[in-house]
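Hello forum,

I keep getting stuck at the same step: I have a sequence, I want structure tokens, and every attempt I make locally crashes halfway through. Rather than fight my setup again tonight, could one of you with a working pipeline run this one for me? It's a single chain of 266 residues.
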Amino acid sequence: MSAVGKFVTIVWMHVLRMWRLKTSYVNTVINTSIWLFIFALSVFAFTPAEKVPEVAPFVFWGMLMWALMSYNVWFIAGWTWWFIGLGMVEEHLLTNTSPIPVLLARGVVGVSLAALTVLVLSPIFYFIGGPAVYSVAHPAYLGLGLATLYVMAASYALTLAAISFRIGVPGVILDITNFLAFFVGILTPPTYLPASLRAVSLAIPYTHAAELVRYGAAGAEPLLGVWAESLIALALAAAMAGAAAAAHRLALKAIRKHGVRGVGRM
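Reply #2:
Ran it on my machine without issues. Output:
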């Protein structure tokens, strides 16, 4: 079977599993939506009433970006314990199939749940912020921002998965940066941050993809300019993808030499 055929088969496997566990996934969407809305309420609680329609689109798209990030970590990096526990790594290697596409295809689960989470939150944000929440100023840049953000998030999750293969710790436990990335890089535009935090924000790869999303959705001009942010986001996405591939090559080399190490569930 060709590499494309294998990947399509793997994606179909994940879709079937998602359908069989649909009740669990619906529960995940509801819980995540409630959790995200609590964060949104904390923002709106300190926003003057006349500014809410202006702020709501930033918060709405921030929630979407956070969902893409967190679901990737949970459903790619956090899936390693189950993948290894059933002996599936060895089974795939025996059939000349790398574990990388198996983990990468888990992105279909993360994207699906992120989309469902946004559908749940959309009516609430529409009620709070009005039709401006759904406005799209520059569709091409919005698409570019979301695409580069997804590549970064998936690459980060794959890197965590590769590390967990080596040290036996679940990928979700290794994730220590999502909260920092959310508050400093995604929820708050660098323009509104103090100078000290602005430097931290610009050092976070997700910030540059988020700047493109904000520009595409609400027309908010990026701090470094649209073209600069586009080039930076593309370069960082490519670099993170390359780092993830290199990390998995090293992990597979260690697996073939020393065998698969067990990964704790939590």
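The mean pLDDT is 79. If your local run keeps crashing, start a new thread with the error log.
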